[in-house]
Predict the structure.
Amino acid sequence: MSPLLEQFLSEARDFLQGIGEKLMQLEAAPADADLMNELFRLVHTLKGNSGLFDAPEMTRVLHAGEDLMDAVRNGRVAYSRPLADRLLDAMDFVGMLCDELESDGQLGAAHAGDSVRLVDALRHLLQPDDAPAEAPAPESTPESAPAPTASLAEPTPVADTASLPLASIPEAVRMQAYRRACAGEPLSWLAYRPHEQCFYQGDDPFFLARQTPELLWSRIEAREPWPPLAELDAYSCMLDFQLLTAAPRAALEEQYRYVMDQVQTTEVPRLALVMPQGDPNGGPVYDDFAADARRLLQTGDLEGLARNASTLLELSSPDLWIASALRWLQLVLETEPENKAILDALVDCLGSLAAPQWGTAGAAETHTASASTSIRQDPAPRNERGQEAEGVADASDEATPALSPLAADALAAVVAAQGEVLALTDEPRWLPGRLKAAAAALSGCLRATGATAKLQDLEAATAAALARNSGAPLLTWIAAVFPAELVGEPGAAAPVTAAPPSPAHSAPQPPEAEGEIKFGRRAEDAISGPKSLKVDQAKIDRLMNLIGEMVVAKNALPYLAGRAEAVFGVRELAREIKGHYGVINRIAEEMQGAIMQIRMMPVSFVFQRFPRLVRDISRKLGKEVELILEGEDTEADKTIIESLGDPLMHIVRNSLDHGIESPELRRAAGKPATGTLRLRAMQESDRVVIEISDDGKGIDPDIIKRKAYAKGLIDETLLEQISDQEAVNLVFAAGFSTTEVISDLSGRGVGMDVVRTAVEKVNGSVALTSQQGRGTQIRLSLPLSMAVTNVMIVVSDGQRFGVPMDRVVETVRVPRAAIRTIKHSLATVLRGRIVPLKSINDLLGLSAPPKANADDELAVLVVRLGDESLGLLVDDFSETLDIILKPMTGVLAGLPAYAGSALMGDGSVLMVLNVKEIL
Amino acid sequence: MAVEYKKNLVVFHDVVGVEDAEALLEWLQKKRTAKVDLSACTHLHPANLQVLMASKPAVQAWPADAPLRAWLEPILTAP
C-alpha cells in the first residue's frame, strides 16, 4: 500500500467519524449553520481526496452527499432525520469501501450497483417537493407488472422487455442470442446514455461500448435530430448506445463501473427475442399447416413437425412473416424440443398470424419470463417470488386458468403493495381515499384472477375498514384470501423501484427497501481498530516530562548508595542499590528512546513541498531545474523537522534565484541547460544532516567581500586577510544581500541570516562551501532530538555550570606561564594556534580569580564559536551528563546567559550556560 | 496525422482522437460534398462520429476493422 493511500485511509476514517458526529449534532440543532458548513467541508474534502484513487464508487457516493449537503446548506432542502439516515448509510458504505481498500489495496466492481442505489437515494432527497415517502402508487390493474425499467421509457402497462426495441435487432442476431440463452448465458439489454459533458472528462463512450464483453448486437442513436453543421457542438455528446450482450451482470458492472449512473440494463428473457417479422401475406396453405402442426405436436411427432416446417419454409418466400415464424419454430425444435409450451405458442401464432403471447404460453418458463428485472436488483429473490406468485395464483382460485407467470408475479406485487399501504399506521386526512384505492386495486386483482365470487367479501371488508377508519379489516381479508407469507414480507414484494436516474419519474421509495442497504458498520459492530493513533502533542510532551523526572529520580540512586555506605556504613545495601539502579537505568533509557521515537518524523514532511515550489519558482524565473530528493525517510524529532521548513525554503529560493543560471548562460558555460538542485538528508551519529547543493554559478568571494565591506560588515584589514571560504560564509551575516534589485523571491538581505538564526535556535549549525562556476553546497547539521542534552559540568567559584557538549572542543590544563597577555586580553598557544582566553568568572560577574591546581595549571575549556575556538578559564572540570534541559521561564526567561536549567540526581539545580551569549 | 485532408476526401488513420473533431467539423462545413475514407481507421472518438453523423458525408471506404464497420455502417449509410 502506498503511503498516500495509507494517509488517505487514516484521514478518511477521521472524516467519517467527524461527519457522523456532525450529523448527530445537527439532529439536536438543525439550524446551526456553522455545523452545516463544517459538515459540508468534511464531505467535500473527503470527496476530493477520494478522487486521487481508483475508487469511483466512493467518489460517486460522496459527490452525491456533497450535492445534498450543499442544497441543505443553501436552504434548498430541509434537514431531516431520513436525510441524516441516508447520509449515515452512505458514510457507512464509504467506510466499508475504505476497509476493502485497506485489506485488498483496491476496490472490486461489485459495489457499483450499491453505490448507484445510494446515489439515487441521496439525489432523491434533492427533489424540492420531497413528498413523505408514501407507499408506491397502487397499480390499478393487475396487468401492470412492476417493471423497474419501464418507468424510464414509457408508463404503458406492458412488461418491460416489450418496451425495448428488440424488433430492431436483425433476426439472425436474435436467433444467435436465443441459442446462447438456451445454453444458459444471461442476455442483457444495455442502454448507455453518456453525459453531454463527458468528452470534457476524457471519456470515450464509444470505446467503452466497443469493449463491452460478449457483445451480440449494438447500435448508436442520436438523441435528437442533428442541427445544421454550423450550430453543431462536436464536444457535446448527443449519442446513445444500445447493445445486446450475453455477458454476466458482474462483467457488465466491471466494464461500466465508472459510468454506472449512465447505464440502464435490462435482463432479456430469451422468449422476448422470438419475434417473427416480415410480410404478413398469408394463405390457406398456412392454415392447413397450422392444423397439421398442432396435430403433430399433440401426438408428439416432433420429427414430422420439423420436416413439415422445413418443406413449407422452402416453399415460402423468406421475407414473409410466416417464414420468419417457421425459422423460429425450427430453432426451438432444434434447441429445446421438449418445451411444449413454446412450440404450442409458435404453432398457434402460425395459425393466427399474430405475434406469440409469451405471457400466456410460457408456463414452463417461469424463470426466464419473469426474470425481466433491472441489473440493479438481485434477480434471485425475484425468481423465487415468481414461483411464490404461482402458488398464490393457484391458492387464490384453483378454477382459474393458470395465470401467466408474469401476471402472477404482478399480482403478487400488487397485493403486497396494498398490504403495505394498509399497514401504514399514520392517519392522514386522505385515509378513506387510500382505503378505497386499495380496495379498488384488490377487486381488480380478483377480477383478473377470475375469483369474482370473493368480491362480496372484499366489499364487506372495505365497508368495515372505512367505518373503523383503519386498514385492519382489509388486511385480515388479504391474509385470508392470499397466503400469509406473501403479505408478511412487504417491501420484498413491493416494487423495489431501483430509482431510475431520471428523478422526475422516480416513484417514492418504500422506506423498508432502504433498510436493506446496510453495510455492516453499524455502531454495535466491532470496529476494526486503526493501526495508527493520532495523539495530541501535549500528551506526548507530558510523557516526555515524566520520563525526564524519572531520569532525575533514577540518577538519585547512586547518591543514595553512596550515603548508605558513607553515612550508615552498610556496604551490602549500597551494592544492592547500585545493582537495582542498573536495572532501572536500563528500563528508563529504553523508555526514553521509545518516547523519543514517537516524536520522530521523516524529513519527507518538509521535503514534500519542494517539488511544487521548485517547479513554480523555476517557471517564474525562466530556469530549468531538476530537483533531486534523497534520504527522505531520515528521521528526526518533530520540533527539529518543523524548524527546518523556513531555512530550507530560504536556501532553496536562494539557490534558484542566485545559484542556478538561465539555460542560455548554462549552455554558454558548457553545462547542461537543466540545473540540478539536490536535497539530501542523512543521519550522522546523533545528528541529522541536510545538504542542499546546486550546480549553479557558485558564489564569487570577491563580490561578497566588497559587498560586506560596503555594508560595513567587515573592516579594511579583514577585507585583506579574509580567506575565500570565510568570505562566502559572510552571506550569513545579518543584512547581507548580493542582488541589487529586491525581487519577490529574495534579495531583502534577510535570507541567509534567517537561516542561521533558525538553525541555531535548535542547536544546529550551518556551513556553506562554494566553488565559483561549479555550484554551492549548504550543510545544515541538527541534533536528532532536543529533548536530551549532553552537557559537560564545570566548576568555577564553587558553583557548577553546564556547557552543552556540542560546543566543547577539548579540555586542557595550561600552565600559568604559557598564558600571555595581549592588549589586556589573555591568550595562549595551543598546537600552534592562538586561542583567546576568557575567565568565566569575569563573564558571569564573579569576583573570584581563576583557581589553579597544585601544578599551577589553569583549567581551560576550549569551546567552538562559529569557526573560531575560544578558551574558557574555569576552576575544574567535572563529569558529562545527559540532562533534560528546561528552558528558563517567567522572569528568568530574560536572562540570555543561560540556556536553561536541569535537575541533578542529588536534587540540586544545574544552570546550563548559553556560551554564545555570554561572550 | 490521424486525419488526413485531401482535396475532397478525408482519410482516417488508426485512432482518431477527440482533438481532431473540431478541425473535422470545420473542414466538412466547407466541403459539403466531401467523402470519407475510413479503411485504415481502427477507432474514432465519438466526437468525430457525431460530426460524421451530422454531416453525412459519403463513405468511400468502410473500416477494415469488421466490428467497427458493424457499428458504423448503420449510422453512416446515406439515407
